[in-house]
């Protein structure tokens, strides 16, 4: 009897979500639009008759490629606990990704709120409910319009608990305004977004925080200094190292880290000191750059113009 009880316990532990490190992923998935027009959004380009000629075939190919990538990050069925995303159009694409693509076997739930971005893209989060018990979420609006800027993406704040652990984990997901061709006005808009984010971080001071997103800024960008006073970046910081052929984004023959993961100081002893970058061969072109879906309006057939990054929360080190 004892022998059978022991074997049952071993079997249960082997399938327990805490038996392995819990993975937290960030990824800019590049224009994840459906093929239907939303009258409240400027999505005409991403329709079958639009300039991007975004058809159902291309849409479902992209979903399956996103699923394939998350499965590759998972490895041997160690599905990530959290997958943060940006450039997501709506609830429909998240439902299709989690329930109708090949990712459905992972049984992800998701968090998403419609934001005011002119292009109609938002941030969102997938989560494995066996590894993360959702307690709540809200969005923080960046007061862009009040300061004369075009509306941008909301900040998503999600909080929950890992099984058997009493402390709440706060996940914050951002996609800061673009720096491309924006000049001083764009810099001021990004500063406004960072100030809004820092206000949220101050409210959560002392909590267990993971901040991740596309910051449209390199690790040494001065715009990130105020965030760096509150959280610790896990990205490479050395200037010489940043000039190597590595990063999450490739533009005009230069690599860069526009995507970041930062954590509160009390989390540092529980995770690896740096992030992993998903340089899977199927995400890259023959030249080694991210294989993007579009370049301008030209369809390239790839997955995303950004590479995913992730960290691991150790099973034997709890925040």
Main sheet: strands, sense, barrel:
6 strands, mixed
Structural class: alpha+beta
Q: What overall geometry do the principal axes of the alpha carbons give?
A: globular
What is the name of the CATH class?
Alpha Beta
Query: Which stretches are low in confidence, meaning pLDDT under 50 for 5 or more residues running?
Result: 1-18
Number of domains: 1
Provide the β-strand percentage band.
25-35%
Q: According to CATH, what is the topology?
A: Deoxyribonuclease I, Chain A
Number of helices: 6
CATH architecture: 4-Layer Sandwich
Overall mean confidence score, pLDDT: 89
Order of helices and strands: HEHEHEEEEEHEHEHEEEEEEE
Q: Distance N terminus to C terminus?
A: 37 Å
Features:
319 residues; alpha+beta; Deoxyribonuclease I, Chain A; six-stranded mixed β-sheet; 16 strands; 26% strand; disordered N terminus
General description of the model:
The protein has helices at 2-14, 56-74, 91-100, 183-203, 225-228, 239-242; strands at 22-32, 82-88, 109-112, 122-127, 133-140, 155-161, 168-175, 208-214, 232-233, 249-251, 254-256, 259-263, 276-277, 294-295, 298-299, 309-313. With 319 residues, the chain is an alpha+beta fold. The strands form 4 sheets. It has a 6-stranded mixed beta sheet with strand order 3-4-2-1-16-13, covered by helices on one side. Helix 4 (183-203) links the parallel strand 7 (168-175) and strand 8 (208-214). 39% of the residues are buried.
């Amino acid at each position: 009897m004892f022998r059978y009880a022991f074997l049952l316990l071993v079997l249960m532990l082997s399938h327990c979500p805490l038996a392995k490190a819990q993975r937290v992923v960030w990824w800019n998935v590049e224009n994840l639009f459906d093929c239907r027009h939303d009258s409240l959004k400027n999505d005409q380009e991403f329709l079958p008759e639009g300039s991007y000629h975004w058809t159902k075939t291309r849409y479902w190919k992209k979903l399956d490629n996103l699923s394939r990538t998350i499965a590759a990050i998972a490895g041997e069925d160690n599905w990530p606990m959290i997958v943060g995303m940006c450039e997501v159009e709506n609830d429909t694409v998240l439902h299709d990704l989690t329930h109708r693509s090949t990712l459905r076997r992972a049984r992800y739930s998701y968090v998403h709120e419609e934001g005011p971005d002119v292009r109609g893209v938002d941030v969102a989060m997938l989560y494995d409910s066996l590894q993360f018990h959702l307690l709540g979420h809200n969005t923080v609006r960046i007061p862009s319009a009040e300061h004369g800027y075009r509306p941008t993406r909301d900040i998503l704040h999600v909080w929950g608990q890992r099984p058997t652990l009493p402390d709440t984990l706060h996940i914050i997901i951002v996609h800061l305004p673009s720096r491309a061709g924006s000049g001083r006005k764009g810099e001021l808009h990004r500063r406004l977004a960072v100030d809004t984010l820092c206000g949220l971080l101050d409210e959560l001071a002392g909590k267990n925080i993971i901040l991740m997103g596309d910051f449209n800024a390199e690790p040494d960008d001065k715009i990130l200094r105020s965030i760096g006073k509150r959280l610790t970046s896990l990205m490479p910081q050395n200037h010489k190292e940043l000039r190597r052929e590595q990063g999450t984004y490739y533009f005009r023959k230069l690599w860069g880290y526009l995507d970041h993961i930062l954590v509160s100081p009390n989390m540092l002893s529980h995770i690896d000191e740096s992030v992993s970058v998903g340089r899977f061969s199927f995400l890259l072109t023959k030249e080694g750059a991210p294989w993007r879906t579009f370049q301008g309006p030209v369809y390239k057939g790839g997955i995303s113009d950004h590479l995913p990054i992730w960290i691991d929360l150790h099973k034997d080190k709890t925040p």
